[in-house]
Amino acid sequence: MDIGIEQISFYTAQYFLDLKTLAEARGVEPDKFYTGIGQEKMGIPPPDEDVVTMGASAAFPLKEQGALEGVEALLFATESGIDQSKAAGLFIHGLLGLPERCRVVELKQACYSTTAALRMAMGLVVMKPQSKVLVIASDIARYVLGSPGESTQGCGAVAFTVTADPRLLAIDPEAGFYADDVMDFWRPNYLSEALVDGKYSTQVYIKALKAAWKQYVGESGRSLNDFARFCYHIPFTRMAAKAHQKLAKGISDEELQTVIGESLIYSRSAGNCYAAALYVGLTSLLDNAAEDLGGKRIGLYSYGSGCVGEFFSGVVQPGYREMLLTDAHREMMASRTELTFQQYEDIYNYGIPTDGGVHTFAQYCTGPFRFAGIRGHKRIYERA
Ligand code: CAA
């Protein structure tokens, strides 16, 4: 029995800052961001969006199509948690009106947690092949203003269903994985910005990739030639390119573009989506591949700082294009609103009140759901 991803949906906030604007404000050459980092825009969530509204908005098209009927678990992956106790997925469970008979839990291990959720979902489906699990990954990448990480900020969410005999991607049983207790990127509970040892984080990303790939090859007997495409965790698109160049030494720019280029299109304009990033890349690949990938194998590398890395693979299913939400994704990306630098800083500096009082937030342009305010330390969400 094959198990894997049945359908996938992507959402990012309606606002962005062009990195040319950031470059001008910070006195940096725009090419450093456009070429050196490989990013053009960063997605910015307005004050009435958070990981709950973005996650719910990603899952909403699946709900509308009836694809969430009978879902038995909602696994929510994030590193931008909004509560130390309650799983953010429970707010989404309420907003989407999911069945009472549903296990809801939040998972954390930096950007890796979505792959852990996928593994857990597959385990549930193995035990009960007719069951369906909803995985949602939603994150806001936020660094200190003016820091090297600033240009790699972004936001976004993906929602995907995991089933037996999936119509999008059947996950192979083989995998290589690696863990190491390192401090390359972290966020103490008392900070709202991530801390990062930037250069070191890129080295650990590659070290974990090499270890995971070596193990994967040993277990599967496959080589680079067995893959039509690769999707990497995408903190910034140049990182994915560098990662693939480590595995495929001496690869030409043209070949590199062929095997990873289509997976980087959405991230180049949405920015880092942390836990969602690899799966934003997968969505971008499936939506934008010029060639029909049905029957072809793709390689996936998931990385979460701290750190855990996993290399795994899957076979794209024949007829997969019928399951895609390509038009909606493209329309969303094309209809976003550009912010001025002042608007970006104002939104960045907008602090969520912590006094337990009654606060109502101004209405910005959002997806189908918004974070309307806070009352007595309770977050209030509503249909937009
Ligand atoms: N034109 C073209 N290229 C230029 C340029 C110009 N005018 N100016 C600089 N560049 C190039 C540089 O040569 C460099 O390229 P190489 O890496 O090939 O040498 C590239 O632009 C970046 O320049 P710097 O190395 O000087 O950049 P930096 O030190 O200011 O910042 C960074 C880089 C440290 C990665 C920073 O973006 C950062 O801290 N990011 C956040 C951490 C991160 O994303 N880490 C990734 C691995 S960890 C992970 O993946 C988990 C996660 O999601 C966070």
Task: Describe the overall structure.
This protein is an alpha+beta fold and 384 residues long. The protein has a single domain, classed as Peroxisomal Thiolase, Chain A, domain 1, CATH 3.40.47. It is 34% helix and 27% strand. It contains twelve helices and 17 strands. It has a nine-stranded mixed sheet, with helices on both faces. A three-stranded mixed sheet has the order 3-2-14. Strands 15-16-17 form a three-stranded antiparallel sheet, with helices on one face. The longest helix is centred in the middle third of the chain and has 23 residues, at 198-220. The mean pLDDT is 98. Acetoacetyl-coenzyme A binds at residues 29, 31-32, 35-37, 111, 148-149, 152, 184-185, 196, 198-199, 201-202, 205, 233, 235-236, 239, 272, 274, 303, 305.
Jot down its keywords.
Peroxisomal Thiolase, Chain A, domain 1; single chain; 34% helix; 9-stranded mixed sheet; alpha+beta; 12 helices; 3-stranded mixed sheet; 384 residues; binds acetoacetyl-coenzyme A
Indicate the CATH topology. Answer: Peroxisomal Thiolase, Chain A, domain 1
Sheet of most strands: 9 strands, mixed
Principal-axes geometry comes out as globular
Low-confidence stretches: none
Number of helices: 12
The chain-level mean pLDDT equals 98
**How many domains make up the 3D coordinates?**
1
Q: How does the SSE layout of this entry go?
A:
Elements: E1 3-11, E2 15-18, H1 19-26, H2 30-37, E3 41-44, H3 51-64, E4 71-77, H4 88-96, E5 103-107, H5 113-127, E6 132-141, E7 154-164, E8 169-179, E9 185-186, E10 195-196, H6 198-220, E11 229-232, H7 237-247, H8 253-260, H9 265-270, H10 277-288, E12 297-304, E13 308-316, H11 326-334, E14 337-338, H12 341-349, E15 358-360, E16 369-375, E17 378-383
Parallel strand pairs: 2-14, 4-5, 4-6, 11-12
Antiparallel strand pairs: 1-7, 1-8, 2-3, 6-7, 8-13, 9-10, 12-13, 15-16, 16-17
Helix pairs in contact: 1-2, 3-4, 6-7
This protein binds acetoacetyl-coenzyme A.
Residues 29, 31-32, 35-37, 111, 148-149, 152, 184-185, 196, 198-199, 201-202, 205, 233, 235-236, 239, 272, 274, 303, 305 line the site of acetoacetyl-coenzyme A (CAA).
